[in-house]
Design goal:
This protein has strands spanning 11-13, 24-26, 28-30, 37-42, 46-47, 53-55, 64-68. It is an all-beta fold.
Length: 71
Amino acid sequence: EAQVTIGAALSITPLNKTIAVTNNTQFSGQNGAPPYSYSIVSGGGSISPTTGVFTAPSSPGTTSIRVTDAT
């Protein structure tokens, strides 16, 4: 006999964010198993893989961020 517990899906907050060029914002993992890791899927800028602090590039555009958890 096995018991399975299903939790909420891993998500990232904020889901959408508009910031000025070269400004910073922080993304956070939710509902997963810490530690979280952050990366850029597409677009410019940079993100700290451990803290989720994103720095926007020097020109306008769209960036997609991914969060992964320990599982």
